[in-house]
Fold each of these.
Amino acid sequence: MGEVITVTGMVLSAMPVGDYDKRLVLLTKERGKITAFAKGSRRQNSPLLAPSRPFAFGTFSVYEGRTAYTLHSASISQYYETLTTDMEAVTYGFYFLEFADYYGRENIDGGQILNLLYVTLKAIQNNNIANTLVKLIYELRLMVINGEYPQVFECIHCSKKLTSGYFSPVRGGMFCEDCKGFARGGMSTSEATTYAMQYIVAAPLEKLYTFTLTKDVEKELAQRVSNYKKCYVDKEFHTLSVLEAITT
């Protein structure tokens, strides 16, 4: 067995293996998304019992194998316990984990996604911002981190600075009034929604969840984010189906 390495990360998923083990998917700052086996973690007296569950965030000491890692020990700084007392919040949380898993890759710095996930799970526990808005912010910002960066600051065709315009998911951003003919599938987008998208794309992470929207603006933003996501994300998320079932 190889040398023990220590990574900072979060458990995205945990699956039972055999009688007493678990197969974990970790999103780590240093190694990206990795698979680690937590041997004996399903035994009640195992020191790996608590760290081997979704949402556990901290440092993980692992042995590196040829195709996977083996969890040696962990020091968990955040379990997000309050999520488990709120069915809606925890379902949103599992969706955020599943979306992060979709974009996570091994041997690629996972720091940006990990940091976004950390602050997003904090935000979903904050009653000052609607869960639905947290979801929209997370989705758009995560796509930005992955390189699907919508151009929302200026017209794609003529580079005119924008405060409103026509958002084309297929073309990857905004068009001004004069260039709307080039906005294939373009949707007229209000100044408030345009500003919200600009803020989500560019705001410092610590400021990301510090605003609210009216219901009409949030509805418009949801349509823009949903259509943009359909162009770049080729997966149906199981947790979204569960979320829709408990919130409708």
Amino acid sequence: MYDIPMQKLAIFDIDGTIFRSSLLIELTDDLIAKGIFPASTAKVYARARDNWLNREGSYDDYIMDVVKAFEGRLKGVPHKTFAKVAEQAVARSSKRVYRYTRDLTQKLKRDGYYLLAISHSPKEMLDPFCRQWGFDKVYGRIHEVGEDGRYTGKTLHQTLIDDKAKILKRAVRTEGLTLKGSIGVGDSEADIRFLKLVARPICFNPNSKLYAHAKRHGWQVVVERKDVIYKM
């Protein structure tokens, strides 16, 4: 008998790494604009957003406040309504991607890599977005829907989705993949855990903590600014 060769793997964070913002922010803003979330929702993250724009606060603080606002307003929203808004948001913004990571995913796909996406954005938005860019498997936040077709406010599999390294190991085990020759792309210190596991970690537009870690460990750093891509 012959051993079946395992497929090489490429793992990507999505928000801020492929998509040039956050899918969750886009979706939350749309839910507010359409009156599905109350207008007061934006007040939850307004200060953190202003602090980040003014370079007086971190992006992590901003996005965590968006998560807080989103999850605090989701309970009772009909799944069908939510899914429709998510689909419209993806249709409008799915091409707002970085050229470097867009081209890299296409090259890796041609080279036979298995493309794995991991994000903390809702899976209802991740699935159509990642499908457009050729991903084979997508992990994102899954929010429970009750028998009445409305969200219960509960997030499922929270422990797993919060640990990207655990997700990577699970995918390798269940999908017949190998870490030999693997590639990983992330943009913040939260991605260090899975970047440590791949053969070629790429820190794309990294925040200061990931950048410092990359420099200490000799990881590749890539920055895309306007129409120029810098490789360090």
Amino acid sequence: MTVLSVNVNKIAVLRNSRGGALPSVERAARVAVEAGAGGITVHPRPDLRHIRPDDVRALARWLPVELNIEGNPFAPPNDRGYPGLLALAEEIRPAQCTLVPDAVGQITSDHGFDLARDATRLEPSIARLKALGIRVSVFVDPDDANVAQAAAIGADRVELYTGPYAEAFAVGAPAAALSDCARTAKRALDAGLGVNAGHDLDQTNLGPFLSAVPGVLEVSIGHALIGEALYDGLAPTVRNYLAVIAGAR
């Protein structure tokens, strides 16, 4: 069954907007895990605007499910306390590291790597992570004709960027975007890659996505899930997602 990995970045956004320790990233992660989530995702950025390296360290000390750390492997360390993605992964040894081409200061991820252009540059980072026993996923566009190149450079999985699908679904015309995602997932599977997905997935569009796209091993969901949880409660919201996933099998 598809694993739900809950992204807790937005909890850190709320905490950082006020200062102090509340709401607690760790407590939110515990609630999500106790409700059945199979993973926790964090995406620490160099400007430390939400998840911070110390949050990642705290989660890694006790988390009983997979930890997925996302980030740009080419973003350098800085004097604000960001050690760089590869150094943080080397310290923490998460189950999975997802490589994302977000620029410093970018509000949110909005595109995947161009594997025709970026593969050679990514290969040493992938090798370094895999030498640590970390599963590597590469964030790719939903219509990437070169997705098989991720396997050639050593990646284990790709994560389909589902923002365009979510936008198309919202206006009632998801067919073309779903077709792109399904075709790219098939290419990835044929190349021996696992398939993850994430970005703007929610309770409404997740089921149709999983029904149409083959072999999705994991969905990483944060923004919509936390927003829905403000109304419905975090634990019931996680259970709702798990029900959608189960219903799509």
Amino acid sequence: MTLRARNLTVSIGGKIVCRDLDLDIRPGECWGVLGQNGAGKTTLLRTLAGLRAPEAGTVAWTEQALHGGNRRAVARHLAVLLQQESGEFWGSVLDYVLLGRFPHRTALFGYSAEDERIAAAALAQTELSAFAQRPLNTLSGGERQRAAIAQLLTQQAQCCLLDEPLQNLDLRHQIAAMRIFTQLAQQGGAVLMVSHDLAWVRRCCDHVLLLFPDGDTRSGAADDMLTREQLEALYECPLDI
């Protein structure tokens, strides 16, 4: 059950994000994606999720091509946490979190008792049980981020792609969120996260992908990627580690 990119070239607005990238995100692995602002980390993540077409190459989940496939079928196995969502959601926090069960839903209308049990467990895991009936649009930025994480957990996907998953979270909830993500990998899930926080990537990721401004990429074990030489080349500034 591997998310696999082969000869992947991604571009946006005439800028090459990566070229001829080969990448395997396997069960039990937690990947960090690092790069400067504007390097194209979000664009690459959306391409890996099958939400946009690559310039060249392929992305597949267990040999099934993602781009142009059945999105509901893909969503049973692959979950995406984006930085920004389009539009506004006017329902309750519980309604929002239950959307994670949509790919698995069998009834034409409504959710099953099992769906609601899974959503309630995700709310408890993100410390939002007391907020279940509150309108989502009344939450703070950090609370909404926790609700998005709860929705992701409710989806129960085998592969999770996370774009800046710690945004708006205070330190306590950053710790809790990273514990959740590392546990997903420890339990056999595949996790890839875009981050600007080197400390968390060092602490929690076993593999790292570096996106350079010229479209070059380097990937491998975290110990090999998170060196002073590699990071100074990536960020084009001197570092004291």
